[in-house]
Every structure is written in structure tokens, then in C-alpha cells.
Amino acid sequence: MFGLGWTEVGVIVLVAVLIFGPKKIPELGSALGKTLRGFKEELKNPSEDTNPEKTED
Fold this sequence. Notes:
mainly alpha
């Protein structure tokens, strides 16, 4: 997983719990999941508002 071993992942999780607290971690995970899902959907179906290739004359 990203070139990290289980020890490094454990340290990262421990630091995250110490910084954000155990109650905030699920909220952060949920927000990250929604963000990634939005990026995936936008990559599959880009909206016409954000398409710089099309120009209207």
C-alpha cells in the first residue's frame, strides 16, 4: 500500500488518533470518501461547465 509497511501505517493511524481524536476519525473518513467519489464521477462524466476545450462564439 503506497510502499508503506504495516509499522508505518500503524504509526500514521496512531498520530491521526492523537491529533484528531477517536470521535473525529470516522467523520474525516466519510468526508474523504465523498470527495473521492465526487472526483471519480467527475472523471467519468465531466460537466460542460468545466470543459475548457469547448468555446462558444
